[in-house]
Design a protein that fits this description.
elongated; 60% helix; alpha+beta; 14% strand; single chain; two-stranded antiparallel ribbon
Length: 167
Amino acid sequence: MTVYSVYEPGKEAPDIAVRADRLAFVKEGFSWPAFFLPALWLIYQRMWIELVVFVIACVALQWAFGLSDQGQALFGWASLALVVLFAFEANDLRTAALERRGYQLAGVASGRDRTDAERSFFRAWLPQQAKAARGVERGQERARDGEAAKPVTRGEAEEVIGLFPRP
């Protein structure tokens, strides 16, 4: 079972289909593409700050170990360790990059694969969005009719402490 965090852009789209297309599903855990092609993965995800830091780290490792045979061997092992560490943290870095761009956590989905996780997420998410849209439309109809929403007054008898009403 694979778990995905689902992020939605902060900007409201006019249509629910456009909003659904803009959702970003971020897999939790190890990222195989980031392990095999870290720089290309960063470019594909448009994570420019992380790409610069990764390149600087690789250049710094090369400089630190030098050009000797022993230094090259150590550089190879250190760069492998860097790539493994990066692959474990890649999806968390993507989450941070999305949040910097204004995305907000919309929910969590799980499934056998991404398609199954998307299906389960949209099965729960779409009815909530339709219900929220109907509530907004009803609020607009009341405002057009000149009716104001009546304030809800709560009496002392309706107060709840924990799970039980006050005696």
